[in-house]
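ESCALATION

Customer reports they have been waiting on this structure for their group meeting. Please prioritize. Original submission:
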Amino acid sequence: MTTLPLSSYHTPAAAPRIALRSVRPTTTTSLVNRNAALYNMFKKIALPTMEGMSFENQHDILYFEAQGNYTTIHFADGRQILVCKTLNYLEEMLGDDTQFVRVHRSSTINLNRISRYVKGKGGYVVMENGEHINVSEGKKQDFLDAIRDYFGAKEA
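Update from on-call: job pushed to the front of the queue and completed.
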């Protein structure tokens, strides 16, 4: 058996193997969600910017915020990118990715980046960076269904 230096375990190629070993799923659903989460950690989205294209990891996105025909993408590291595309266009680019859910006509959030949900008429989501994103009354049930499907959680 060949032994590798410790530093080789810190490469991006080794990250999925390490992550797979550290998480033990208890149900088939959690196994599927775990594998989807690992896949999404390295999945990128091409964002058209004023300068050209920006290729970003989807996992790093906190949320999308629409402003007419423009959308601001907020990242976990505090960066923001403004793109001249609608929120609908960006959601179509994401495809059927269940980690993103529309919670308001002007907001789509990354479920992997929420800290908590606070109940209310629609309620609001607190993101990892502390920002509050309102959940509209009309989108509340879709949001709760997405949480249940994605995390296997009971409804709040």
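Sent to customer with the following note: The helical segments are 15-22, 28-41, 87-94, 140-151.
Escalation resolved.
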